Amino acid sequence: MDELTQAPPAATADSAGRQRATRRPKVKRKWNRQYLAYLIHSFVGLKLTLLMTIVLASGTLAVLSQEIDWLLMPEMRVSPTGERINSGELLDTLQAAYPEQGLSFFQTNENHPHTAAFARYNDENGGFRYAWIDPYSGEVTGDTPLLTVGRFLSFLHATLFLPVIGRSLVNAFGLLTLISLVAGLLAYPKFWRFFFKKPRTGNTRVFIADLHKLVGLWSIWFLLIIGISGSWWFYKNPFVRFMDAPNPVEPYPSKPLLSYEQLEKLGTKTPTPLTGAQISQIVQDKYPDFQIDMLNAPEHNADPYQVSGSFGEWLVRTGGGSTVYVNPYDGDIVKTIDVREYTALQRFDHAMGPLHYGYWAKSGTADLVVKLVWFSFGALMTGLAVTGLIINLKRTRRGARIVMSRTPALKALKKSWHLAKPWGGPMGVFKYINILMLVGIGVGCSIAITLGSQGVKDTGFSYSEKALGPWKVSMNAYAGLLEKDLKPIRPGISTNLAVNIGKQALHEIKFLHVRVGKPRTIRAPGTLIHGPLGSKHAHFELPKKIHDGARFWMTAQTWSGEVYQTSWPIMPDNKETFDVR
Fold this sequence. Notes:
globular; eight-stranded antiparallel beta sheet; Nuclear Transport Factor 2, Chain: A; alpha+beta
């Protein structure tokens, strides 16, 4: 009887011992280099996943932006028939088709034989558009909006349409990509042995994790290109641009201007500039092997004609290569900038764009093949961001299930609430940063679409129409293209002035300047107003202190020597100056 009564306690003790023995022992995580690298890789890839996915997906599509627009826009499509027409003659023909709009950034698309040449202009409403012309027949095929599908994707990838910080933020993701790559390799010991390891099946999380590692390994070369180029740009913007960090790249050759002596030799009558056809022929005669990619007509009367192209060099963006500057009145070559003479760092700086976006192949089939390779690996990078998030979500849910199965109900409920609450989960408070940025991107997209159709006309501060000698002139100030709803006049900042003045006035005016305060001498009239017809503007540095009653003064000098002036109050007074935001 005593034995029977003693048996249950013994059995209970033995059962409890076995239960304790089957419990998983607590393992204290060892903080070594591999584990630290894993934490960094997970943090970088997880906390800003939504933004990272948008940057990667838009960049992937932006690689084929021109091809996307080519499929959607019939104005861009041409059939190669015979030889191409002289590039300058194409620009002259296009300008004749749009006589009231000043064309700029005329791009020949010579490396893309099935694509029309085009130039940008401002329409009557102030919006931006592109005009297209067949380079074989000389037929104007039509015009398209600024924000086509392809260009929208390109702008989205470059700026996220976020005012002020957008480009810097996108560049930061390049640095994060490089950090994530290095940390991921350190967290994956002897990674070089797993290039051909098949992902394990049977468990979704394990399969996705193995696939994530395999894709990452085969994308190392591409991740390095994106990470290095993005990190380079991140140093340049914001550090060099906004924080005065030292620029490791030597200054590029400056654009030359015509001297006062050269302009005075033209006399007191309005001179007639050479045509685009004459300019391009002069360049081709001087440099027979020079391929013209872009033409830019002068934006003011001291500006030379700019002809950009290639002597055959690689890894240079279109319009950013070698440049020949020509006097638009007598045809003399003012200066030639040859990319082949750049320093190693300057060439490295130029190479970042073509390498990042995959447009370094010369033309034809090779160009499309390279872009498709870049598109494919961009899609894989986007997949890495998505699968990384899925892995973390599944790991978190698995941990929650284990906790709930091994702890009392109250503790499980508390843990579940910790995961479900808005500031909990794998992303934590960073989800708010992602959501806030997504809202900003949405607002920025709306601004950009409006900008494409309306430009910067009637935004910011409006300076009413006034007489400037025999002509009429008005202007408006805006902080920036994506910042046009911000206050444009603040002490010490850079602002922009869009100037509206007639075609006849621009024909007779030699120089047009603007400054804060009345100029004391005609030799210091202020900032030069420049740009094509319909898009005259000035980038203006405001003084650090703006006095009450300060005024913008505009000064016009004609070819015959007359000087005319007018002025407006800088700040809105609801009489001459208005806040129209």
